[in-house]
Design goal:
Elements: E1 8-18, E2 21-27, E3 41-44, E4 47-54, E5 58-63, H1 65-70, E6 81-86, E7 105-115, E8 118-124, E9 138-141, E10 144-152, E11 155-160, H2 162-167, E12 178-183, H3 185-194, H4 207-210, H5 214-219
Antiparallel strand pairs: 1-2, 1-6, 2-5, 3-4, 3-6, 4-5, 7-8, 7-12, 8-11, 9-10, 9-12, 10-11
């Protein structure tokens, strides 16, 4: 489990094929690995990866083909900068929001414009994720916890303050940039809970087709 508060930025030292999958070697930059053990989790651009090798300066993680295909990690190259966060401890201060490190989809940056000292960014999410993104709710972009300003269909807006621009890679993004998105975990569970007994019936509800709609809400007493 993570908080979406980036601890440091690192860079890709190497990305190679190993036994028909991938081995990612990350230079940890300012991230201390002094308390890291084999098997620990570190989020790389929002993807929860397992440490399989490490020394004081870098760590390696195995990445499945599924992860490479379903996240933006497949676009990384040697030298690419990445956001890093170690898994939170039970005694840690919870500064962001609940982040699992399980990427829901890949979005893209539509526009970037200055807004005072901040940057106002508009992203487009995959259409199937749009229903989970709400104004003033939380969204995780490449592992960074951000507040959604507004939503327009599958597009949403966030503001990035100067501190976040410096401490993460988000200040380097250009229009068209692909990013990992993780929606609010609570929204996903809420949707599933509202299905009730229908959740176990693959033919009883059109979850994959459209999610919660007016018909579903009326059936459950919402007017």
């Amino acid at each position: 489990m993570f908080t979406g508060i980036i601890e440091a930025t690192g860079s890709v030292a190497n990305l190679t094929r190993v036994r028909e999958e991938w081995r990612l070697l990350v230079s940890a930059g300012g991230l201390s690995l002094a308390d890291v053990k084999l098997g620990d989790s570190i989020a790389v651009n929002g993807c929860c990866l397992t440490v399989v090798e490490f020394d004081e300066h870098q760590f390696a993680a195995d990445v499945s083909n599924e992860t490479m295909n379903c996240t933006s990690l497949g676009q990384l190259k040697t030298g690419s900068r990445v956001n890093l966060e170690k898994a939170m401890q039970a005694t840690s201060r919870f500064g962001g929001h609940i982040v699992s490190g399980h990427v829901d989809g890949v979005g893209s940056l539509v526009s970037s414009a200055p807004d005072g000292q901040s940057i106002r960014l508009i992203y487009e999410a995959p259409k199937e994720l749009a229903r989970y993104i709400a104004g003033k709710g939380s969204i995780c972009i490449d592992g960074t916890s951000l507040t959604v300003n507004a939503v327009n269909g599958a597009q949403f807006t966030v503001n990035v303050i100067p501190h976040t621009q410096v401490e993460t890679i988000i200040g380097e993004y250009v229009v068209g940039q692909k990013v990992n998105l993780e929606v609010d975990l609570v929204a996903r569970y809420l949707e599933r809970l509202m299905l009730g007994d229908k959740a176990a019936n693959e033919h009883g509800w059109k979850e994959q087709a459209g999610g919660i709609d007016a018909e579903f809400l009326a059936e459950h007493g919402y007017k």
